[in-house]
Amino acid sequence: MNNPLWNGGANVKLRLFESAAKFGDIIASFNCNTNNWVAIYIYKRLKFLGNRFLSQFITLWFLALWHGIHSGYYLTFFNEFIVMNFEKDIEAIVKKSHRIQEWLKLPGASPIIIPNTFLFCSKPEEYFI
Known about the structure:
One of its GO terms (molecular function) is lysophospholipid acyltransferase activity. This protein is mainly alpha-helical. The protein contains seven helices and no strands. The chain is globular, with a radius of gyration of 18 Å.
């Protein structure tokens, strides 16, 4: 006998949301059903473009259009696009750096090192050229 699932209306992963260490965690924990629907029906169907950034940008543009015509929606989703791509780049830098990995092993170091890594190691000019 199948056990019924009672989480169909759950749209927030509260534990992940409250303990988020990255912007991606916040996105993954909030508005889960909408994120899942958009991933399946918009993002994955744009695979033919052959460009993840373009697919992600178009998906976020669709979400902004879905919300309405006010410029704040477009600005917010564009900001999400920028921040998520910076975050992916920073994670790659942190994983490659042996020095940062050693520092992260120190107790209490992560909350100090990760924001500073983001501030001093990112190359925002690459995204605007």
